[in-house]
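Appendix B. Chain record.
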Amino acid sequence: MRLAKYLAHAGVASRRAAEEIVAAGRVTVEGRTVTDPACDVSAAKLVCVDGRPLGGPEERVAYVVNKPLGVLATASDPRGRPTVVELLGREPARLYPVGRLDRQTTGLILLTNDGELANRLTHPRFEVPKTYRARVGGGPLTAAALQALRDGVELEDGPTAPARVRRLGPQELEITIREGRNRQVRRMCDAVGHPVRELVRTRFGPLRLRGLAPGEHRRLTPAELGSLRAL
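Structure tokens predicted for this chain:
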């Protein structure tokens, strides 16, 4: 197995992050520093990260979390602010979030120790859909604004792909995107004159919150994991 993939399966980090850890010289195999993420390793070899031995691949798990307002979508924060990983308490697996939600966005986020799954769910090539419900300002939503979102809008980092958009109320909409740019939904709504006042992610691929209250979580079933990997 490739070293980066081994680290991802061991719950160290996502595969791409694991490649950076290896390249930085933080990993040893049988006492020898290895900087090639493609180096082949087996479960029989002693692999250490920052001098700490890995116990082999962990059981791969994933959780759906309903992220509350003000909680960071990170594994840790140097300033001591609350993170989504802390919401799971003493879960033994080393979990990290899949994708991003900013502090002011609430709703569905995935936590996992499966680096290969995390990479597939966030890589642009797979175009995994993510659905949001947004309450916006700028007056009642117009047909022109909704159509502009459906067609794709011009942002500072280039035009967005077409989105699926549904009007829920005078100043409320549902939007589904297949990209993962930073604060994308907020920037799209700003671009059509309707700044976001409240944003909730309600769906990630085939997964929904299923009535989870803010701060609550549930472990994915094997069937749900299978549907995610099938994406």
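Further analysis of this model is presented in Appendix C.
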